[in-house]
Amino acid sequence: MIPEFIVLALFAGLAVAMVAGPLGCFVVWRRMAYFGDTLAHSALLGVSFGWLFDININIAVTCGCLILALLLVMAQQKRFLATDTLLGILSHATLALGLVIAATQSDYRLDITAYLFGDLLAVEWVDAITIGAISVLVLLVIVALWRPMLAITVDEDLAHVENVPVFWVRASLMLLMALVIAIAMKVVGVLLITALLIIPAATSRKLSKTPEQMAIFASLLGMTSVIGGLTASYFWDSPAGPSIVLCAAILFLLSLAAKEHC
């Protein structure tokens, strides 16, 4: 009989991979990897504020990611600084501030390793239900906004001419990424979240002919990586989060090899 903690971990991992696939496609298409890193680093800052003010960690992380995503959207509108420069500043500043706050909690110190690399095998029923509910919500929004998000990805100026609300669609995409990054922290950790978004999408890009195919394949490849990573973790006692990312990387290399022989 499969242990309950494996079932919960599998459910949570599959739910995150299911929505990380389509969002990862937009990350690849729009070259937003640095944006994903910035949000991921802000997740650790949310953890630290949760400790500091005795707030539920999941709520603190989610609020932190959403607030930073909104700030980035507004900052991009102002264009007072190049986007990559702004992301570089915020990414490292939020990570450094989170680490400093965590290190100075003398009366309430916790090991941050689980937050950096994930702690999927420690998922509880509440975590699994929360991750599942948010994943379904994000997936429904992606389906509803798929064509507008695709339009602004192809050409924002043309989308504006076609009466697509570019600002709000872009803001929605960033907020969806923030939500997924917040829930993915439990699965693969702050340092590996962006990899779960990018690698399955990059792999599916070589196997797909349409954007819709790429999104579906990215989800399936991400879910396959979760299953493979958890299997490796269960039998060889390897860390679950890094094992999942390693499986995704192996699938990417196999896709390259398959492409070479076709």
Automatic annotation (TrEMBL):
Keyword flag Transmembrane helix: yes
Where is it chiefly localized?
A: membrane
Note whether Ligase occurs among the keywords: no
| Cell compartment(s), UniProt | Cell inner membrane; Cell membrane
Question: How is it placed in the membrane, per its record?
Answer: Multi-pass membrane protein
Give the residue spans that cross the bilayer.
Answer: 6-29, 49-74, 86-104, 125-146, 173-202, 214-234, 240-258
Keyword annotations from UniProtKB, A to Z:
Cell inner membrane, Cell membrane, Ion transport, Membrane, Transmembrane, Transmembrane helix, Transport, Zinc, Zinc transport
NCBIfam families xref list? PRK09543.1
What is this protein identified as?
Answer: High-affinity zinc uptake system membrane protein ZnuB
State the species of origin.
Halioxenophilus aromaticivorans
Q: What is the lineage of its organism?
A: Bacteria, Pseudomonadati, Pseudomonadota, Gammaproteobacteria, Alteromonadales
